[in-house]
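name: query_chain
kind: protein
chains: 1
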Amino acid sequence: MTEFSDLGLSPTTLQAVADTGYTTATPIQAQAIPVALAGQDVLGIAQTGTGKTAAFTLPLIDKLASGRAKARMPRALVIAPTRELADQVASSFEKYAKGTKLSWALLIGGVSFGDQEKKLDRGVDVLIATPGRLLDHFERGKLLMTGVQFLVVDEADRMLDMGFIPDIERIFKLTPPKKQTLFFSATMPPEITRLTKQFLRDPVRIEVAKPATTNANITQRLIKVPSSDPKAKRLALRTVIEKAAPETGIVFCNRKTEVDIVAKSLKVHGFDAAAIHGDLDQSQRMKTLADFRSGALKILVASDVAARGLDIPAVSHVFNYDVPHHADDYVHRIGRTGRAGRTGEAYMLVTPADDKGFDKVIKLIGQTPEEEVLDVDYTNAVTVPREGDRRRGRGERPGRERGERGERSGRGRRERAEAAPEAEVVETAAVEAAPEAPVERAERPERERKPRRERSRDRAAVQTAEAGPVEEAAPPPRPSRERPPMPVRGVQPVRAREDDDDRRVVGFGNDIPAFLLRAPPKLAKVED
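structure:
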């Protein structure tokens, strides 16, 4: 085990680390910090939850301790893929730099541009930002990146998944070529490898674990759900949570709409749960995350926005409500538990529709989680479509419920009708038992209807006969459409003579003007 005092950090930084309660460095910290202090580029590869944030924050504080920030010209730039991760990096920087005079600013979406611009105008040493908001400030002319001495890219593989690689390439080109780059990632896809070869200068590769490996402190379990119906999955999830009794837990879903539905279902059944995903307001996201960190919230239902980089050490359980679309995301999801040497448990619900994605996860991690059987009766949890819905093509796929599209689509009304089948049967029987009353209609004599054109002619004839004879008036003369010629400035119109009525001028023809037949004048001979 390596102590922080052996890594070459300044006494001020060591005191800040000691105040947080840490004394021993993790493997990625023990290897990356001395290299970063020496001024070399770093390519750090480590599984999530191993302390990558402190591995670049601590040396950055030491190297920036001397110097002064300039307005709109930050000295260090830290790029993070999500707002939550950027905010977490800012919190770490504030915690470790409290003994220095360094300033910092956080540039993320969902926050007023004006407040961020005021900080930039005063000058900051460290700028922590997401790629989109950073480039927005640059294009507004509020930010210059010519003074960047240190560039940190955190969770680079997440940048790739979110489509930020073109923005990262542009940021690299906008910053000076002679800068120190610290590049951290949990996995190394080919696109990330290409990026490091293009922009890093002889980096020291530090790999403390194989890419896409799970933490040994995490116990992984598998729950097989016999039906793909969402109601059956939610019943299985509630049963697992009740059985596991987590201190705090995160439930991961693939879709944002599913996050809202699952969170609402858990709250309805008495669980202390709240949702967090990218479509929520930034203030609400930050408050939900703060409540979860403080322990005021017990269960966080999240999309993959919370799967990368969030350091919440007290998470005891992770529940994968959906098998992730990308196998790498499974490693990041369960990495939210078992952090900083703690133990954790991870559950994954697998339905018959998840076989392909589940096989990819097993192939990636190289092991099959232990299967746990739940004593659950799924009979009443499966939505059975009515006969009328089958004829209309509904009910073929696993049922959506009111939470996804609401009452407006009419599905909520159908569910309430399904909840009371006895009333429906009684009403149907009453209708069938009612005798049909005979309806008497008066017979009308049929008359032959003429075609519409003949009826119009008849009406016109009647109107003419009633009006009497009318003298036909001569039609007014139609106005001529010929327009007079437009006058041309400086040219007098030519008046035709009386004998030129039937003749037009089309050109000279065979007549040659006399001035063209004249011989050219002879030039006088000039004697020398």
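note: The CA atoms of residues 386 and 418 lie 8 Å apart.
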